[in-house]
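User: Hi! I have a protein structure encoded as tokens and I'd like to know what sequence might fold into it. I'm fairly new to this, so please keep things simple.
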């Protein structure tokens, strides 16, 4: 049974969302059709993607105002995708899950979700929650804040291609090293505590700061001239790790 069959038709006059761009990441055909019908009735412009790995490309090409995200997806799962999006943007993210699972909900919020909606929620409530999330975000096109690339005197990162160049040379990073680096670069000059990196990169179920230290060490060996005396990813004792952006 599709969602639309047991929630009934949406009332587009209840929560008009005219011209709002929504990226829907959902692999179940029945739910996908229901969501499309309800949000188009409400006036939204949609991009619908059924694969987690493709969703990041959609984020850059479509530049949505909000992301509606399932958890169980082929490719990258929804929780990891949520964390990846949040590491580069403050765009509102609503998790749309089939499960009434408090633990999963808490993990979703830890990963940066703004709201968590179960799939038996009436469509009128879903559109209302979308409106609230947009209102909290300032009702502006927050995706304009999503950067396609970063560059400074030392570092070039293409967030669309997931590529990194340091001092003009391509660097081959693991997905974990890439996540750590991009989180630090996005907050350049600001210390990021190891526990925060642990939650954002690995998730709340991990509690070993040694895991962070080990991966930061490997990252430094790939990007630093002298990993024993790092200039790019430095440690502020008692505060955390910092990407030391060079002065302009």
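Assistant: Happy to help. Inverse folding works backwards from shape to sequence: for each of the 248 positions I chose a residue that suits the local structure. Here it is:
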């Amino acid at each position: 049974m599709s969602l639309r069959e047991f929630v009934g038709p949406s009332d587009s006059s209840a929560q008009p969302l005219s011209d709002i761009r929504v990226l829907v990441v959902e692999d179940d055909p029945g739910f996908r059709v229901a969501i499309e019908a309800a949000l188009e009735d409400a006036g939204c412009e949609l991009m619908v993607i059924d694969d987690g790995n493709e969703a990041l490309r959609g984020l850059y090409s479509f530049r949505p105002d909000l992301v509606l995200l399932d958890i169980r997806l082929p490719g990258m799962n929804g929780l990891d995708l949520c964390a990846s999006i949040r590491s580069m943007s403050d765009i509102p993210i609503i998790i749309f899950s089939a499960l009434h699972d408090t633990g999963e909900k808490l993990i979703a919020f830890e990963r940066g979700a703004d709201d968590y909606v179960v799939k038996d929620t009436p469509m009128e409530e879903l559109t209302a929650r979308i409106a609230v999330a947009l209102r909290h975000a300032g009702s502006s096109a927050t995706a304009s804040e999503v950067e396609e690339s970063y560059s400074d005197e030392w570092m070039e990162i293409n967030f669309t291609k997931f590529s990194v160049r340091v001092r003009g040379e391509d660097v081959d990073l693991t997905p974990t090293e890439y996540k750590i680096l991009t989180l630090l670069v996005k907050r350049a000059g600001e210390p990021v505590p190891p526990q925060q990196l642990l939650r954002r990169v690995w998730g709340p179920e991990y509690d070993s700061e040694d895991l962070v230290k080990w991966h930061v060490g490997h990252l430094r060996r790939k990007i630093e001239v002298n990993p024993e005396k790092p200039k790019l990813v430095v440690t502020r004792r008692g505060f955390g790790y910092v990407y030391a952006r060079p002065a302009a």
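A useful reference point when you look it over: Residues 3-145 form a domain with the Rossmann fold fold (CATH 3.40.50.2300). Feel free to ask if any position seems puzzling.
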